[in-house]
Amino acid sequence: MKFLKILVLIKTIIAFIGVTFSTQTYAQETSSNKVANKTDWSIFVEDNPKECWSVSKPKEIINTRDGRIVSVKRGDILLFVNFRPESKVNGQLTFTGGYPFADGSNVTLNVDGTNFALFTEGEWAWARSDEDDVKIIKAMKKGAKAILSANSSRGTKTQDTFSLLGFTAAVEDAEKRCK
Question: pTM value?
Fold first, then answer.
């Protein structure tokens, strides 16, 4: 039930901010249609329009300011892989850090030592291209953990660590459900 409340909160934030890019991910945060779990990843499906995604929460969160660990209030921190056949989206990585990212900043995604840059808009981050999505998902399927590092608009540095246990099964399940 808490996860559903979190998803509803994200819906509210998106509606308020009106971020153009997030309109495509709107349904994924508001769904109560969880269809499966694969270790640390969950799979959701919506039928109208057809959308499927795998999603996970971080296992570890570190917030620092001026080199010191600090306690900060953040919204939901989620990492997704989306499939929307109607929009020809076949495996799009999406990250929300639970706060507005610093203007013009990137999020760094580190998968077992390999770095990828994600572009940001508001509280959201994505791969720069479909080709980058393919490379990132391939690396995540082989990896054990993904670490997302970013800077908030208030100057906080964040580091969110996601387990990749169950990632491959979850992504493949979500993709299969959206064929």
Answer: 0.81
